[in-house]
Amino acid sequence: MATMVGPGLSVRMHAVEIGLGPVTPSDVVAVAREGAAVTLSAEALAEIAATRKVVEELADDVEPHYGVSTGFGALATRHIPVERRAQLQRSLVRSHAAGSGPEVEREVVRATMLLRLSTLATGRTGVRPETARAYAAMLSAGITPIVQEYGSLGCSGDLAPLAHCALALMGEGEVRDARGERRPAADALAEAGIAPVTLAEKEGLALINGTDGMLGMLVLACADLRQLLRVADIAAAMSVEALLGTDAVFAPDLQALRPHPGQAASAANLRALLAGSAIMASHRTPDCTRVQDAYSLRCAPQVHGAVRDTLTHAETVAARELAAAIDNPVITPDGRVQSNGNFHGAPIGYVLDFLAIAVADLAAISERRTDRFLDQSRSHGLPAFLADDPGVDSGHMIAQYTQAGIVSELKRLATPASVDSIPSSAMQEDHVSMGWAAARKLRRAVDGLRRVLAIELLTAARGIDLRHPLAPAPATGAVRDALRATVPGPGPDRYLAPDIEAAVAAVSSGAVLRAAESAAGGLQ
């Protein structure tokens, strides 16, 4: 159960509790997208308090300790006197809150904050319990710091984005409140009854030194792609059916000859979706002279399956990262304060780039199936461009242009960000991951894929309608009917952009997937 508290943000009636163990992907989605509140377990607060004592014992130490009594990055050799160490932490946050460009989406900032809080809850960072509580209170109150597009190199973590979050915790900078209104952080905190935090030793560093932004975007992208892969199978099934293809190539024994798990899952979905199709039965006769379908139809399980297996690998990496405690220096369980390199974003950056490549190819095969519908020489009896009166009407001609434009953009977005590195901090940080950039382009790619699949669904549904009076399979027919709830069937040309947006909305809301599964059962 949820109640709306502002544009695009709902607050769930229960909270996600952060303990000593890792948060789950579903926790990330709940907090980021559904506005779930956040609490800290008693065990986590006890661990935070215990390791804070280690930092406090070092605070007056004459020996230098990075992040406690030294400068940062290339300035780590500068010893900071005791009386200036609180200022050290405030200055760190203020100087690192140096983002620029468009505002980052609210769900990304909330995911980032949740994952930083999860690391704080492990007790490995040395913050005070009251600092962690205040961070959790910001999330629960729906206060979202303004974070900007540019500023992170993905090493030492997502410094600038996390610094903007820490700045808001200090009562500085700007935020959006639960209503979505942009306002000074101090005012939003006061309204929510949250006292600004005056940072103590090491806390500034602990709040900004993590890969939480890129990880949050990876988790959200994985959740989206799990749904979109099933939608891709639905779209492919509708295209195979309406283009008078065959499902014989999806047989289990043929798929087992190449035992990739993703391929098997996709083929099983296609068989379930096409079961009982009168359209397909109509051309299973001795008169049919077609030997085999084009690759975009016949090889759908191989391509869709490879994307599935890539996603599974990315989810494995994400799960390991969710179990990580990233900070530098870190407070080890035996009480050592140890410098390390765990903040480097390479493991996340690689899979973000890998997914962008897979997304581009999944969109490309979808566009190729759509294009076959529009060419009389390849559509097996359908009118040119699926137009009502070809020549007078253009049908879906330009919808395919839109797809092609998106696919071309996705190919550019598939260029890896993680192979780039620009040295920073006077060559102290001489190799960086660019993982944040990889995550930002993957978000754009996932949105593009959703739109490409929506256009294939629209086109395939129109193709199915034009095969009337032959009936589609129960599952593909249910999807066609779900689309027809907001998009009219074949007829003279009309304003097409709203139809495309309605199809995108049907994909995003889960309406397409629910319709298919209502007839075919749960898809893999």
From TrEMBL:
It catalyses: L-histidine = trans-urocanate + NH4(+). Pathway: Amino-acid degradation; L-histidine degradation into L-glutamate; N-formimidoyl-L-glutamate from L-histidine: step 1/3. One of its GO terms (biological process) is L-histidine catabolic process to glutamate and formate. The gene is hutH. There is a cross-link at residues 155-157 (5-imidazolinone (Ala-Gly)). Belongs to the PAL/histidase family. InterPro entries: Aromatic_Lyase, Fumarase/histidase_N, HutH, L-Aspartase-like, Phe/His_NH3-lyase_AS. GO terms for cellular component: cytoplasm. HAMAP family: His_ammonia_lyase. This is Histidine ammonia-lyase. It is found in: Cytoplasm. NCBIfam families: hutH, PRK09367.1. Gene3D superfamilies: Fumarase/aspartase (Central domain) (1.20.200.10), Fumarase/aspartase (N-terminal domain) (1.10.275.10). It holds the Pfam family Lyase_aromatic. The modification 2,3-didehydroalanine (Ser) is found at residue 156. Keywords: Cytoplasm, Histidine metabolism, Lyase. Its EC number is 4.3.1.3. It comes from the Bacteria.
